[in-house]
Structure formats: C-alpha cells, structure tokens
Amino acid sequence: MTATPDPLLAPRLDLVEELHGHVVADPYRWLEDAADPRTTAWAAAQDEYAAALLGALPDRESFAARLGELMRSGSVGIPVWRSGRAFSTRRDPGQEHAVLRVRDLDGTQRVLVDPMALDPAGTTTLDAWSPSWEGDRIAYQVSVGGDEESQLFVLDVATGELLDGPVDRCRYSPVAWLPGGDELYYVRRLAPDQVPAGEEQFHRRVFRHRVGADPATDVLVHGDGLDPTNYYGVRLSRDGRWLVVSASAGTAPRDDVWLADLHGDGRLAPLQVGVDAQTNAWVARDGRLWISTDRDAPRGLVAVADPADPATWDPAAWTTVVPEAEGAVLSDLALVDGPDGDLRLLAVHAVDATDRLSVWAADGSGRLADVAVPPGSIAGVSAPPEGGTTAWVGYTDHATPPSVLRWDAGDPGALTPWEQAPVAGAVPDVVVTETHATSADGTAVHLFVLSLEGAPSRPRPTVLYGYGGFNVSLTPGYSAQALAWVAAGGVWAVANLRGGSEHGEEWHRAGMREHKQNVFDDFAAAGEHLVAEGWTTPAQLGVFGGSNGGLLVGATATQRPDLVAAVVCSAPLLDMVRYELFGLGRTWNDEYGTAADPEELGWLLGYSPYHRVVEGTAYPAVLFTTFESDTRVDPLHARKLAAALQHATSSDAPVVLRRELAVGHGARAVSRTVGLAADQLAFLAARTGLTAR
C-alpha cells in the first residue's frame, strides 16, 4: 500500500538555473505566488497545523495573561513644541493605539487623532505627524490594514476641522511647513500609470503643496531624473528662508544634500553630492547652517557653516561644535539657551549601546557639562524652535516604558521627571548583566543579559535576540516579551552585532554587503558565550529575530542547527537570490548586494538560508510568523523556507508557519500584538524547557 503523503509537504519543482556561473536550485518558486491555488491549499494546511500546535502549547495562556499586563503598560512620546503648544503621543493602559494630542497654552490637553476613533476595528495606524510653526495646524499620516501606504491629512488644531486630505502615495514622507501654515513641502510617489510596471513603490518626488488644493496642482521641486529608489528628506528654517533637501538611494548609508535660499533665487545648490557619507543639515534659529555627519568621522560630529556662503560648505571650512568622540557614537542633538542666553547644544552619545547626554557650547569652545542619565536609552531630545532654557528627553530602559524627562539650564547636570508612562501591572525585578562574546575573527560583541532577581540556578532556558543590519542599534528598551520571559524564570539576551550602529558607521559596514557573514558569526559567538558562561545549554537556547533579524535567525538555523533548540523567525528575508524582486527589496541592495552582479551573487548565495538547506539535517524547531499585508518583506520568504525545512529535516522538531491577515510589517493594535507574542513565547518555552511561573 502506498503511504499517504504528508499534507504539509509542498511539491518540489525540478527547477535549476545557472546564474553567473552558479547553479541555483529553486524547488519552491511556485510558493512565491500567493494567488496560485496550490499555494492557497498549502497555506490553508499550514494554518490548520499552526492553530492546532500553538493552541495546545501548555503555557500559552499564562504568557498571554502576563503579556496582556506588560504590553498594556502605557507609553509617552517626546513633545514637539510650536508657539507654546506641545504635541505628543500617549497610550494609556487598555488603549489599542497611542493617540496624538496637544497641550494648549493654558495646560489643558486634547486628543487630535485617535486611530480607534477612525477605525474601531483597530487596523488603522498613525504613521507620522508634523505641526506647523505656529502650532495651529498639523499634518498627519495614517495607513490601514498594515499596508503602510500613509495617506496625508491636515487638521485645524483649534477646531479639529479637517482642512486637507486624503493625499495618497505618501509613504515615508517627511513634511516641512512654510510660515503661516498655508503651504508645506512633502514627498509623494508618482502615480502608478506614470512609472514602469513593478516600480510602483519607487519614483518619489519632492513637492510644494497648498493646503486644500488638488495635489495634481502641486509644484514639483526635486527628484526628476534621479535614482528611482531615492528616499527624500525635507527641512525648512523657521523663517521660511532656507530649504534643505536630502536624498539617499534606498537604505544606502550615504546622502546627497542640497540647500536653497527661498528668499533668493530658490535654486537648490549642492551641499554634498556623490560623497560616501551620511549628512543631516538644517538652518537653525541662530542663522547658521548646522551639520551632523559621519563624513570622515564614522562615530559622528557636529559642525556649523554659513548658509549664505558656499565657500564655508567645504568640510575644511566648517567650525566643529561637537568633535568625533573615541568609543562613543553621536545619535541626537538639540539647541537650547543657557541661563545667560548663550546658545548651547545637548548631545546624545551611545557607549556600548547605552546612551549618555552632555552639554556643549555652540561656539565650538567645548563640553560644558555631563548630564546624569540612568543607564538606558534616550529616544530623542526636543526643544522649542524659538529658543528657551528647557528641553525634553525621551527615556526608556529594560524595565521602564517610554517616558519623558525634563532638562533645564539652571541645573544642567540633572534631569527631572516630566511625564511618566503608566504601568498596568507589576514589572518583574530584572537584573541586567553586560558581557562580551568573542566572534570568529576576534571581534568583541557586547550583550545585555536579563534575568530575574533571585531566579533559579543556571543554566536556564534562554532567548537570544538580535538584528545586525541597516545601522540599527539595539539599546536598552522596554520589551514586554523579554519581561514576560524573565518573569517566567528564563534568561533573555540581546546581542549588539556588527551591521548595527552601536559603534558607528565602521561597525555598520563591517556587517553589510561582502561582510554580512560577520553578523551571523557574531550571533553564533554570542550563543556560544552564553553556553560557555553557564547561562544556558544548546538544548535550552532559542533565538528570535524579525525582518533583517529574521534573516539572522534563518541563517543561524541553517548554519548552526547544533547550537539552538528553537527559532522564532518573524517577517523574514530568506531567499537572498530573489529578494530584490518583491516588496521594497530593491531599496536594500546597498545593504546586502545584488544578484545581478556576479560577485555579489556569490556573497548572497554564501549565506542565503533558503539555499543553505541540506536534506537529512536535524534542524531545530522553527516558528515562522508572517503578515499577509506586509508590503516591505513579502511573506513568500517564510513560505519557501518553511517548505524547504519541512522536507529536509531529519528531526522531529516542528517547522510551523503562522500567518496573520490584515496586518503588516510595522505598527499594530495591542491585542493583536499580545496574541502573536504569546504564541512566540509559548513555542520557545515548549522547545527550551521553560515552564511559565
């Protein structure tokens, strides 16, 4: 009798291509097409399997209950001040989304935009917002169903009247207001019928828009004839004179920057073009051109020049205000006034992924004071654009939800509470240990290790989390998942891998393109270090990552299946030969390389998880979590590797694909986040031996 085939096993194609001399098999290419009836049937079987397996996990409900408390703790955003009004976001316990609110001149607060009022189903998210200089109007952007497409609206702050919108195709659009609030600069994609097929997510342009006017009448400012993958930035001085436009090709770590005098000829003149550096420039209230850059300074510096004198735009003519620091990476800054009216600068630097705050003289004469900040992360620094002796500092750490602290020039070395995020339930007593692993090439890799005060003796079930790409730094932050795991008696570790920004642009570039394998080596070294130091064992170790971090843990599963017992791989990139053909993949080829180039294809094939699967290997348990409205990373990646691992593995550890509809890559309602996180933690617990307490 012929055995009944496993309904989960996807049919394999005998599809082999020769690409630049490489023989590349792709047996599951048909799973790229979500509308193919075969894909639909296979995905339905995966859904049934995932629901049964995840629903039966013994600790799922206890994790859901603890996560419900910890995730419903609130969050407070940094205030943006405009003419005495403060705009910020806040989410209270029980709210599904943060609301956008305004604090009026008399101190009263009002809600301006509530995503749940716009959509009680909870699928609408607030993507971005920007108040006018006068604080009487606010532009905000929302998207629906996780598509992140961002429709732009303009609201009258006093009355709540909708003045403009929706303006579509505004994904990732900055907004720069002209004085008076009647016009703004913004970024919008060209209409689909104006671009080649398959390039609808590209071809952005900078426009000047009059509030309430038909967007078809917008004035084109910049972008024609430039790289179709460009992302643009726009900034405008408070007096409306100086416009700065920046452009980067996709996520490339370099910018072109132009400056225009709108009180003069209005022509955009190049400040930096064709230079391999990231530069942020703006004209501040003192009339000087401020420049924050990693140009010839991979850890960052701040300098000033004269916007009206192009001769001073050359780096050799800059006046340095904050020099590059040894061992510290500049991440943010704000202009403030001293007690005597002298201009000063608050600067944020990170040392081993923990933030420091200091005060500098704006004339370049040096550091004036260090500000006492608890060990943690500074999410940003905000000060009124018209000046003042006060600034507001966003703060979080491993046990503190996002909150806001206040700095005042009268006591420059201290911070005081301004607005604390409410906490819905008890936060466990977390002990944070900092340690370093040694990677394959001898590089030191920093880790935060979180455990419970008085936890049982080691080794313990442990989750290792990482990202390692796109210049993203993993600094201390409130994570309900980490806290729920630690509260259950587990250990949670965060690795600061190459590819991030923890040690500046050199650290980033040491983990991108031909150096991407360094990231995976760093992560493996972190896991080995946790084992060697007695925190855990391979049978008790799980790894967790999403997006580029999904690539990280996918590579770990296929390169080091012996090191880990469980993998949670969320919204991942996994087929690195074809990633550019889907979603926003084309914008990432400076980070990873392109398969169109023979040498770069070799880099990609060297680690592409989908192409590293070997039949008969005992792979760890893997949970893929995907979001069907994800317009950044197509769910096809997880489908293909799930099918490949289910076919190839010789172990009895499950390979599970959990799909979710009507959500995307980014923000989501709290209740949906709780359900996802509970499944992920319960899966890790079941495979590493943790019993939720």
From TrEMBL:
The keyword Membrane does not apply. Residues 479-688 form the Peptidase S9 prolyl oligopeptidase catalytic domain. Belongs to the peptidase S9A family. It catalyses: Hydrolysis of Pro-|-Xaa >> Ala-|-Xaa in oligopeptides. Pfam families: Peptidase_S9, Peptidase_S9_N. Its EC number is 3.4.21.26. This is prolyl oligopeptidase. PANTHER family: PROLYL ENDOPEPTIDASE (PTHR42881:SF2). Residues 16-409 form the Peptidase S9A N-terminal domain.
